[in-house]
Amino acid sequence: MSVDRIQEAKDLLEIMGAITKLKDGVYLVASQWNSDKSYIVDLAKRDCSCPDHLYRGGDCKHILAVKAFTERAKPKDPFDLSHTPLSMRPGDWGASTR
Ligand SMILES: [Zn+2]
């Protein structure tokens, strides 16, 4: 596995920690680098509002992260964060991982 793949996987994990479910199939993804920005990912349409997706098309890292997120974690109540480790909560990971 190359360093790039490992870095990519780490990026995905960080993004996964910043995903908020808005409704079925639609997720809000906080930007990893700029907490003021966040993107809307629509899984059904495979759509994302980030520039990367707009310009290049296809699956951007947000779409990939949301896919991995939904496949791994299937919380009973998406708005209940009490079962989520503190380090995975949006807003917390930025300070704890840097
Ligand atoms: Zn995106």
Description of the structure:
- This protein is of the alpha+beta class.
- The protein has one domain (3-92).
- Helix content is 38%, strand content 17%.
- It has helices at residues 3-16, 51-56, 61-72, 93-97; strands at 19-23, 26-30, 38-42, 47-48.
- It starts with a helix and ends with a helix.
- The mean pLDDT is 80.
Topology:
Elements: H1 3-16, E1 19-23, E2 26-30, E3 38-42, E4 47-48, H2 51-56, H3 61-72, H4 93-97
Antiparallel strand pairs: 1-2, 2-3, 3-4
Helix pairs in contact: 1-3
The protein binds zinc ion.
Zinc ion (ZN) binds next to helix 2.
What's the story with the biggest beta sheet? 4 strands, antiparallel
Strand content: 15-25%
Strand order of the largest sheet: 1-2-3-4
List low-confidence stretches: none
Helix content: 25-40%
What Rg, in angstroms, do the CA atoms define? 13 Å
| Hetero ligands | zinc ion
Helix and strand succession?
Answer: HEEEEHHH
Number of strands: 4
The global form is: globular
Structural class: alpha+beta
Distance between the termini: 24 Å
Number of helices: 4
Q: How many structural domains are formed by the residues? A: 1
On the 0 to 100 scale, the average pLDDT is: 80
